[in-house]
TrEMBL record:
Pfam families: NTP_transferase
Gene3D superfamilies: Spore Coat Polysaccharide Biosynthesis Protein SpsA, Chain A (3.90.550.10)
Name of the featured protein: NDP-sugar pyrophosphorylase family protein
InterPro entries reported in the protein's UniProt record: NTP_transferase_dom, Nucleotide-diphossugar_trans
Domain Nucleotidyl transferase: residue ranges: 6-223
Organism (species): Rhabdobacter roseus
Residue intervals passing through the bilayer: none
Amino acid sequence: MKPTLLILAAGMGSRYGGIKQLDQFGPQGETIIDYSLFDAIRGGFGKVVFIVREDIKDEVEATFAPKLQGKIEYDFAIQGIQSYVPEDLGVVDRAKPWGTGHAMLCAQEHTHTPFAVINADDFYGRESFATMARFLEQNTDDTQHAMIAYELRRTLSANGTVSRGVCIVNDSGNLSSVVERTKIFEDLGNIYFEEDEILTELPAKTPVSMNFWGFKPSVFPITQSLFESYARANLTTPKAEFFIPLVVTHMIFKDLGRCRVFGSESDWFGVTYPEDKPTVQAALQVLHEAGEYPDRLWD
């Protein structure tokens, strides 16, 4: 069966100041999701699941469903604050969803094949989708998962700090560890992350995760068990986030699975701040002019 693509589209866009999942960036008003869908279809994916908040589901469906009719199967999963929270914990006092790992878990009932997970607001490139689809179709080991890594220097914003999953890859090409660094920036040609007011330099070619993961369905029970423990431990911490790297790290250190790392030669770009928008628009225009994408994606 063809793999499934999960799109993490339930984010609040607090730093962007709007629903960036639906903002227009392409020459004909395309969203970044439009390009991911286009590349996923030609890369070999057979289904897409949009993971959304209840309050934006109708708008997301109205935007993308007409474009996908007859091209790929699609579905919607709701990431609610109470989703998969143990019932005995009662009503949780949170304003935002639990994070990317929780979002992935919320798509469990809609996902029955090997699958990839991506952010809604990141452009990953055609090659990355083809690489991941090929891995998910051809690798039959239920404990072998994957991720697409990008060079850190190609993933920064000129308009503020960014969060990246900093990776260490072993000699077998598998992930040894991934640590979420939330304040990465460039200064005078050097790249640093800040933690507890201490600056640490990072090499420009450090492989980082941009949340392009490939999983076998065996990841779901592991994720659910881990999230239930996480929810209990963070019930009174309303800003705690259950990231996908927490799941991957748990699998690696408990010897429950391995994660193959594929380096990408594709251009990556995304939007964290409103000031990033013109840069993304210009990059997409160049790709259209180079013939990487047709003038109109869905004609």
